[in-house]
Amino acid sequence: MSAADISEKKRTVCFRKLPLSSVVCWGSVVLFFLLFVAFFRGWLPVFPVAIATGSMEPSIQIGDAVILCQADPVDLQTGDIIRYEKNGKSVIHRIVDIRETKNGKTGFITKGDSNTSPDTGIVLPEAVTGKVICTLPKFGYVSLWLNGQL
Question: How many domains does the chain have?
Fold first, then answer.
């Protein structure tokens, strides 16, 4: 066997063709991984949040995960569960009333299901960061544990 034959054989081994099924399988794994990362980093229109407090019990328990979608505040209604920012913290509570503020803007009165009274103040539309579209019982425990909240 000559040196040229050996060189050609090495090139064939290094660049052999993979079966189409292997390419599709590995491509699917990579795509799933990228979607998984994008979902949990909040890069998609829907994203999960772990629940760390009991203010929404019994509808949403500590350790549950909720899936949020971006919501246009104009479309929000009484009874919707929203996530909003208040004093640098995220709050997930139910809209119990919709009111007009002194400067003519629409605002939301919210309340945790297990709280006896509504939250103080009006939630302005620009503070709303999402609307709950579903709850995944117990799926938030891992995130809470990893973040030291348990």
Answer: 2
In eight-state DSSP terms, residue 121 is: S
Cα–Cα distance, 99 to 104 (Å, whole number): 9
134, 66 Cβ separation under 8 angstroms: yes
- Percent of the chain with pLDDT strictly greater than 90: 51
pTM of the model: 0.74
pLDDT, tens only, 90-135: 999 999 999 988 888 899 999 999 999 999 999 999 999 999 999 9
The domain in which residue 129 lies consists of: 46-146
DSSP 8-state code for residue 78: T
Cβ proximity of 110 and 119 under 8 Å: yes
